[in-house]
Amino acid sequence: MNRTEKHQREPLIHITRRADIPLAKAWLIRLAAIVSALIVCSLLIVAITNYNPIEVFVKMAEGSLGSPRKLMFLLQELSMLLCISVAVTPAFKMKFWNLGAEGQVLVGGLASAACMFYAKDSIPNALLIFLMLAAGIASGMIWALIPAVFKSVWGTNESLFTLMMNYVAMQLVAFFIMVWVPNGSNVMGIINMNSQNGWLPDLFGQKYLINIIIVFILTVVMFIYLKYSKQGYEISVVGGSQNTARYIGIDVKKVIIRTMLISGAICGLAGFLLVSGTNHTISKELAGGMGFTAIMVSWLAKFNPLLMIVTSFLIVFLQRGAGEIATAFRLNTSVADIITGIIIFFIIGCEFFINYKINFRTSKERREAKQ
Amino acid sequence: MATASIELKDISKRFGRILANDKVCLTAYSGEILALLGENGSGKTTLMNMISGIYYPDEGQILINGEEAVIRSPKEAFDYGIGMIHQHFKLVDIFSAAENIVLGLNEHRRYNLKEIKARVSEIIEKYGFELDPSKKIYDMSVSEKQTVEIIKVLYRGADILILDEPTAVLTLQEIQKLFEILRRMRDDGKTIIIITHKLQEVLELSDRVTVLRKGRYIGTVDTASTSESELTEMMVGKKISLNITRTEPNNPTDRLTVSGLECIDRDGRKVIDGVSFTARSGEILGIAGIAGSGQRELLEAIAGLQHIQNGSVVYHDPKTGIDEELRGKSPIQIRELGVRLSFVPEDRLGMGLVGNMDIIDNMMLRSYKRGRSMFVERKGPKDLANTIIEQLEVVTPSAETPVRKLSGGNVQKVLVGREISASPTVLMAAYPVRGLDINSSYAIYNLLNDQKKNGASVIFVGEDLDVLVELCDRIMVIGSGRIMGILDGRTASKNEIGFLMTKSQHGGPAE
Amino acid sequence: MIIKTIFAFINAAIIQGIPLLFGATGEIITEKSGNLNLGIPGIMYVGGISGIIGGYLYEHSGAELNPALCILIPLLSSIAGSVLMALIYSFLTVTLRVNQNVTGLALTTFGVGIGNFFGGSLLSFFGETGSISLMTTGLCFKAKLPLYDYLVSLGEPFATFAETFLSFGFLAYLAVIIAIVASFFLKRTKAGLNLRSIGENPATADAAGISVVKYKYLSTLIGGAIAGLGGLYFVMDYTGGAWTNNGFGDRGWLAIAIVIFAIWRPSMGILSSFLFGGLYILCVYIPGLSSSTKELINMLPYVVTILVLVIVSMRKKKENQPPASLGLPYFREER
Questions:
Q1: If you ran DSSP here, which 8-state letter would residue A185 be given?
Q2: Where are the domains of chain A?
Q3: Across the interface, which of B76, B84, B93 has its CB nearest the CB of C200?
Q4: Cα–Cα distance, A164 to C49 (Å, whole number)
Q5: Dihedral angle computed from the Cα positions of residues C125, C126, C127 and C131, in that order, rounded to the nearest 10 degrees
Q6: Whether B462 and B411 share a structural domain
Q7: Which of B422, B445, B469 is the last residue of a domain?
Q8: Domain encompassing residue C48
Q9: Is residue B214 domain-shared with residue B199, that is, in the same domain?
């Protein structure tokens, strides 16, 4: 047979699934991806601004970590993103694509804000905060329950359903702002500015410390829940194989609904924290896209809540840092989104090289020829 | 001799650590039917997938009409005139037959469904198929779907047709019709390769037989000059009288009484139609039947996984003597009644195990609910996993390995091991040796026999009649969701069972 | 008077519907290949800003402006930008098999970022201040058909007809034509059949000799280019060559909603887009509405979409379901 012809006609690249990969190698690939992403970002920065990229990155680090105040802001944002990431995780582990965190956070925040708005100073602070918490969590749960019920009973596509629910929630918020602020300014000012009724108190003189502590406790609890509890185990089984779940007698519908209720409750809690602990007001941008960013955070951490501390730090660090350089170098703040996008592309893309092996025919044949 | 229309030389293919094909050779000529014979898991399908472009061989050569061919995709396989009819039909549900038939075809004519249907009708008439080209796939029976698959490759002008286990899902009449059509195609000059593990069909239909065993090429013989025993020997390596031990039932008492059972499937058809029988302790009750006759639904109905339309399933508790009705109870409720019912389902990774979880977590599936704590207890399952790995000789790097990374036989051992670890009073196993090598199969038979000795009532759904007549105390034959007869395993003959299995088919397709 | 308002409303509904129609048609073609591209909102931003950049560079090149080039340059640069975005999505999800939801959402973040970044900084790169406004280019895009002038000259009722249905720039007609062509392509052509089969059952398509990778790439790239034109229409025709950050709003998500509402049929997409466009501005045309009711009306498109999604899933009619493999990666040697 004609050897050279055969050589040419064989496929050049041949991809196979890896049986196993050493842990060290997997992390090396991830590290390489982050480094390449940073290089691409640097090139982009140079191309656009002509600034020295090292200088820009140093500015970024300063911008997000440079002072105790900045650090506190970073931790506050990190904790909110982490909270929402933790919220979407149990649903994702169950292979339920909850893209509706944004909306669930919004209605949670809306309910909390409503309590604040209507109660004003009529009830004591502690009671009001408790009411806000309960209302926030309950509304988040309702918002998650609706798509969950339709998914489990009729198999309605949950990613599209939850996605649409986000915009219903946004309009709902817009509606209530219009009702509450009839002057048409479209902006809800700080609620209970003077009495600070319904505001989470400062802790050790730090404004956001309560948020941060609650979220970090929640993260650990979620980690334990998913890994060691019976319900967490059921979530893994349902996510792994619904038939097997039925086979051992797990009520799949119940697990889907229960898990989405948990997901929605935590989103509602995030909404409450944002209103009561951080913003003291409500707007359509309350979640600010974190509901979507959280999906990436959770996915990057492979649904491990403890790892999410790292991945959400990475994202918040980039966004705050990029925001800083935007001001410093007189760029548009949207540069943060661009850098975040690039880094996510690289990290999610690199998983391919961890899961699959690429075999080059030619190099193999060359080796054989040498022998 | 003429040039072979297809010739394989030393083909090897490896999946991870598993060597699926090891230097396999095969030759087929035009105008003949070649049977590719081998046990489940002997690498037949993998080999054929490499001819049809689904997989790419790691090593070896493929010659088509004497010329070396490189088949990188199904499209290139079509270009060489190769068409494969897969066991799992590759059809688009919401398309009509005609749309499926022309799918992917590069014709220079304008796309016109009317003309296409006319041309499909020509083929239908030429070979004597029965099919409506406008019918949607989701409205079709299994046999109709298979017809679509065959016409699809004929429409493409395939000269080499590969059929993967084409008779597995058909009724006797449908099989005869298929064979007629295949013979007509052979006489038309086509090369036909049929993958099977049923000896009788090989002898009835083929001109030559190529045998594979454990991924290796064993040999090729002329059908006319071979015999069932020779083929069996080539297939399994040594002459087998199966020699499965069968002890006398030990003090059998009624354990499970099923009466008047009726179940319907999603489309409202009766899949179980008035089934009544009693399973006794200390015996193995075999269930024989053509695949898809209701075996799966019957076991699932007993296990509480299938909605029961009519009838009852009564469990006689050996300890208390109380009769428990199991109908309408979930698997968990059944267990809470103290009924130790174990079930080894047919599709292990799809039902029974979770592929992405490790062996320990899979052990927990049955026991995780135990105790009042809201947390799972992993110590017990871990010990159980290690015991099973040791006693059943499961080949695995560790107990923390995800089961999807294990080979078929080892996956089955993990599942059976877990199910018998609960010392069941009723053990149901559906095709527990499917895809296993001889040694693993015997290990499983021994495990079932052990359970029988322990006084469990064992219900065994099998496909190999030789095994059924040597292993079971009684054999229940099921056809189209009905019981066709219950025979004594010690006196029943394979012919008798085979007759009962196919007797029911007058009323139309079983599926 | 009422009649006049109604016609004005229809006209406005169509104007609002055009960018949605581009987005929905693009997304339908993409989803038919099994790719759920949630990056479409980002792609539409990039389609808009790329057109702006192309137009800006041409307007400021100092050359004498040629109307044909005024259209061609932004058009081609818009397509180039959107295709690049869709290429990122295809490469990640098809070649590298990354989760489609995650990739799509990241792409939207990225795309909106690109749009707002260049929209906000383009002028400063050239040492200018103020906001982008490409009057000349905008006028070229807004140019009406000759038929319009003719009908207006005939007087009523032709003038009202022309004012309502023929007062748009060429991109509006292009949107409808593309949707009709896409509908024909999916229903009546070989390639359309092949594409649909991939969205339903890629393993089957593969076995039938269809290149799954090629079709997934091509449909995502072409779908992206079409969706990007929605962004271009918005910045060139609707706003007349001006860019406002976040001005495009959440229209990209509305386009995805239309895909569901139109149950994955481009021909249904045309009317659905105009209907959604109408709902988008309905509150302006109903007199005496309080501003809060307006917000509730703006909620309608999403509520209606959810209802359609639910009803379709309850009725279980096979032809009306989302493509069966939507959102799932495909790898031939998976086992």
A1: -
A2: 19-51+329-371, 65-308
A3: B93
A4: 26
A5: -80
A6: no
A7: B422
A8: 17-250
A9: yes
C-beta atoms of B353 and A233 within 8 A: no
Parent domain of B405: 353-422
Spatial strand order of the sheet with B191-196 comes to B67-69, B59-64, B6-15, B18-28, B216-222, B208-213, B32-37, B191-196, B160-164, B82-85
Q: Domain check: are B231 and B103 in the same one?
A: yes
Tens of each residue's pLDDT in chain A, 371 residues: 333 333 334 556 667 766 667 778 888 888 898 889 888 888 887 777 777 778 777 877 887 787 888 888 888 889 999 999 999 999 999 988 888 999 999 999 999 999 988 887 788 888 888 999 999 999 999 999 999 999 988 888 888 899 889 999 999 998 898 888 877 677 777 777 777 776 767 777 677 778 888 899 999 999 999 988 989 999 999 988 888 888 888 888 999 999 999 999 999 999 999 988 788 888 888 888 888 889 888 988 888 999 999 989 988 888 888 777 777 777 777 888 888 888 889 988 888 888 777 776 554 444 444 44
| Unique residue bearing structure tokens 């398309």 | B95
Q: Note whether B305 contacts A1, CB cutoff 8 Å.
A: no
Residue type, B62: I
State the nearest Cα–Cα gap between A241 and chain B, in angstroms.
6
Shortest CB distance from C193 goes to which of B73, B86, B99?
B99
Buried b / exposed e across C278-304, counting CB within 10 Å, b at 16+?
bbbbbbeeeeeeebbebbbbbbbbbbb
Of A310, B96, A168, the residue nearest C257 (C-alpha)? A168
- Overall number of domains in chain C: 1
Specify the CATH number for the domain of residue B260.
3.40.50.300
A236 touches chain B (CB under 8 A): yes
Question: What separation in angstroms does the CA of B342 have from each of B156, B293, B315?
Answer: 49, 22, 13
- d(Cα A165, Cα A100) in Å, to the nearest integer? 6
Q: Is the pTM of this model over 0.90?
A: no
Question: Is domain A65-308 in CATH 1.10.20, yes or no?
Answer: no
Q: How far apart are CA B352 and CA B328, in angstroms?
A: 21
Structure confidence by residue, pLDDT tens digits, A335-359: 888 888 888 899 888 888 887 777 7
Of C214, C266, C215, C279, nearest in space to C23 by CA: C266
Nearest CA of chain C to the CA of A224: how many Å? Answer: 25
